[in-house]
Amino acid sequence: MDTPGLSTDETGQVYCTWRSAAPEYPRYHDREWGVPVADDVQLYEKICLEGFQAGMAWITILRKREQFRVAFEGFDFRRVAQYGAADIERLMQDPGIVRNRAKIVSTINNARRACELVDETGSLAQWLWAFEPGPEERPAVVDLAYWTGNPTSPASVRLSKALKKRGWTFVGPTTMYALMQAMGMVNDHLDGCACRPKIEELRRQFKRP
Asked: Which burial class, exposed, middle or buried, applies to 57 when counting CB atoms under 10 A from its CB (0-12, 13-18, 19+)?
């Protein structure tokens, strides 16, 4: 019998159950989710896409991600920071992305805030990784009960408050915890998932910026 939150695939490997919820998920689960990221453009993209996901299913965003990348010029935040009213209207007419005006405006705003942060501190990655929770803030066991009962964390609350203070938008504590999971700041592959030890090793080898 499978452990709650874990499933065995056709090869006999055990993974987080959500991996099998859509055809796009195995690659994302196995190769990307939880892998530590230190590239500023990739991190800005993740912040933006997690913001677009608010109130929606992640699979919707994942399926549209390539078109998001086209629409926002590869999430080059220095380019996006220059967008104006005409760009907002262009994006609102793009059926390949989520046409939510508030989220589009937020993406442009956050690009400008990212430029400010990088100009001030030198690196978005260095600034973000300073919010990595210590071992004392992490659970002894990452199981389904922990995963479903903790949509935020003390560290994600701290990160959310710090970003909001700097003028970022769509960066609530739940969204920021999803970011922390996605960018490898925490390893939330469930105990027993075949990817969990792989991510732990990547995190061990990862050189914090």
From this structure: exposed
